[in-house]
Every structure is written in structure tokens, then in C-alpha cells.
Amino acid sequence: MIEGLLARAAQTKSLKELSLLVVNEARALVACEHCSLVQIHHQTAKVAAVSHVPVVDRNVPFVQWLESVCSEQLDRMGPEPFVVNVANLSEGLATDWNDLCPPALLLIPIFDPNGSIKAVLGFARHDPFSHGEMGIAQTIGSVWALATRNQRERRVKRRGLVSTFALLGLLGVASVIQVPMTVLGEAQIEAEQSQIVTVPFDGIVADLIIDDGVSVTVGDPLFSLEKSQLEADLEVSVQAAEVAKADFNRVQKQGFRDAEARRAVASKEAEYRLRLLEAQIAEDRLSRSQIIAERAGIVRLEESDSWIGRPVRAGQRVLEISDPSSVEASVFVPVKDAVALKIGNTVRIFLDDRPDKPIEGQIASFSYAPKPSPLNVMSYEVLVRFPEQPTDVGLGVRGSARVYSDDVSLLYYLFRRPLLFVVQRLGI
Predict the structure, then answer these.
(1) Cβ–Cβ under 8 Å, residues 38 and 67
(2) Which fold has domain 194-224+290-322?
(3) Residue 53 carries which DSSP code?
(4) Which residues are within 8 A (CB) of 98 and not within 5 positions of it... i.e. 6 or more apart?
(5) What does the pLDDT look like over 368-425, one tens digit per residue?
(6) Within 74-130, where are the H helices?
(7) For 182-192+324-426, which CATH class?
(8) What is the CA radius of gyration of the chain?
(9) DSSP 3-state assignment of 290?
(10) DSSP for 400-422?
(11) Three-state SS for 425?
(12) Which class does domain 2-159 fall in?
């Protein structure tokens, strides 16, 4: 009989079906008026099945009484069959016993692998239960515990297979779907046309006439170099030229009477012309000591407070004059996120001052050697130009850019970083 119950329990597909089978078959193995299965969850009892009752009505007084009895007697139950004694019940439960349940009530606790009671199998009848019947009832409880464990293992295995096939299906779909490969980078708006203003000759910055962000027109003064040394050099050069001129005139006059003087005329003339050229150069340097703008635009100057009094050399950059009417963008793609770039690929730029209004451009060129970005990250610089010039975009505004590359499979797009990590770390 027990073997037949075990075989039938192994064929059940749900906990409800198993519970109904056990409580109904138990009556044939242990004579009783009714058999009930009570599940325990967080020390709370809930009747799951009653013999010959297809659906448990939790409003029935017997069901509520049995749940209260099991909850109250949980702490007294051990591994052995437990016979409920009226003396151990609370007054209310003891008073209702005669009206709701036969006088002999046998409870079989069923334990989970952790040692906690997960269910109670209850048998009720008028005559007391023998030790043999208690052993059979305990075996029936073991059958229910074994069958529930097998059901759980089958569910786990079935879910594992479903999950595996679902994952394989998703990977297959992801390998077919094509998406654009994109990468994020830093972006900064630059002028497409600008003038780099440099120092014309060695000197010291005496005055900085303009400041960063100021609009200038052609001919506006920008900064000046120290003039005192230049004025002194001009004065010395002019005096030397005057002396050479007087010496040249004297030799020229003596040449009419003295042959030796005539031979010195050429050298004196050359010396005079040299001194005169030095004076002209000194005058030109003095006139260029004040640097002016050669084009209109916006001044871009860094460290404006530290230029005055600083020694500078010829060709050293001081500032830049940019045309705000024609802009482009410099995008810095981190080396670790580098993707295949092509001229003409789309770039969408989200500026910090207008993140809800992206501007779209195309790659005009890109560097082959990385360099530090404005945030000091080794990156490839990508030059982006716009088919239509954006409006109300300030020079120097920063933001982020999404650079588009060729289409790749969704699978590669999702696992590119993990794959790159494995290749770099393991050398596969």
C-alpha cells in the first residue's frame, strides 16, 4: 500500500494534487474520520487539503480551529508523532474541540532539510491511535515530504532547461539584429577659423589690453611689450647712424684731394648703410611692440592675470582670435573605448548648456596617435564639422558626444567590453 502511494505521489505534477492524494489515500492506510494537511510558513498554519474536500473553505470553523491548534502546538512538536492533549490547549480551543473535531487527534510533523516544520499531517477519529498506526502515519508524512522534494527538483530542472533555451534563443536573435556601434567621448566647441597671435620678438609683456571672451575688430590693440629697452636701442642705433653718416660725408669730401680717402669712401658708405638699417630695424621693432588684431572675432586667452611681466620669446603663443560664426567640435574618444572610425560618420553632440537639443555633425578627421584630453584622459581627437552651422552655440562650450561607427550585431554590442577585458587580461 505504501509503495503504491509512493508511486502515485511521484506522478503528481503540483503540490495541490499531491496534498489531495495524500490526505485521501491516508484514510485507507490509517482508519480515521478525516485527514488534513496543514502547511507551516513563518510559524503560521494554513490548511492546504482535507480528505474528500476538493477545495478548502477557510471560513469553515473546523479549518480555522485546526489552524489555531497547529500554530499553538508547534513549539511542543518533535520528530515523533504528536497526540494532542486537551490539557495543553488554550481555553477557547479546548471548549470548541467537542463540537468541531473527534476526541483523538494525531499530528505528524514534517520537517524540511533545515530542521524546521514545514507541514503537519493531521488524523482525527473517536478511538485512540496505536503505535503501529502512528508509524504508518509517520511514513505517509515522509512520502509527502519526498514527493514535494522531487517536484521541486523537477521544477528547478525544467526551469533550467527553459532558461537555457531562452538564453540560446536570445543570443541567436541578438547575433542577427544589427545596431550602430557607438562610443561616448568628451566634446568641446571650437572655431573653424581662428588666428593664433604670437610674440613677434623676444621681450617682456608690459600690458594686456584685452581679456578672455572680448570681441575685437581688425586693428584693435591686444597687448604690448616693454618699450624702454626698445626705445634705448632705437636711440643708440639712430646716433650710430648719424655718426656713420658724418664720417661718410667727411671721407667723401676728402676724396677729391686725397687718394687714400677715395679708397675709404666705399667702406664708409657700407658702414653708414648698415647703421641706417639697424636704426630702421630698431624703429620697426618699437612700432611692433604693440600687437593688434588682424581679424575680427572673440579673444580666447588663458591665464590672463599671469602674462604681465612675463618674459616671452619670438613665436610664443599668447592668445587666439576665433570667428564665432563658423564653429566645429573637437571630440575626444578614450583609448579604452576606441572603435573603427571613418570620415563622414555621424556624431551627435549634447552640450552641457543645452542637453535637450543635440547637434549633429560628421567626422572630418581624426588623430592616429592618442593624447591627453581636457580631462587628462588618453584619447583620440576627432574633428567634427556641421553641414549646417548651429545657432546660439558659444565657443569653448563643453559636453558629451556619441560617435557612430559601422553596424554590428547586438550580441557584439552588448559583450564588447567583457570580450575586450578577457582579451587584454588573458591574451586570448
Answers:
(1) yes
(2) OB fold (Dihydrolipoamide Acetyltransferase, E2P) (2.40.50)
(3) B
(4) none
(5) 888 888 888 899 999 999 988 887 888 888 999 999 988 888 887 887 777 777 776 7
(6) 91-100
(7) mainly beta
(8) 49
(9) strand
(10) EEEEEEEEEEHHHHHHHHHHHHH
(11) helix
(12) alpha beta
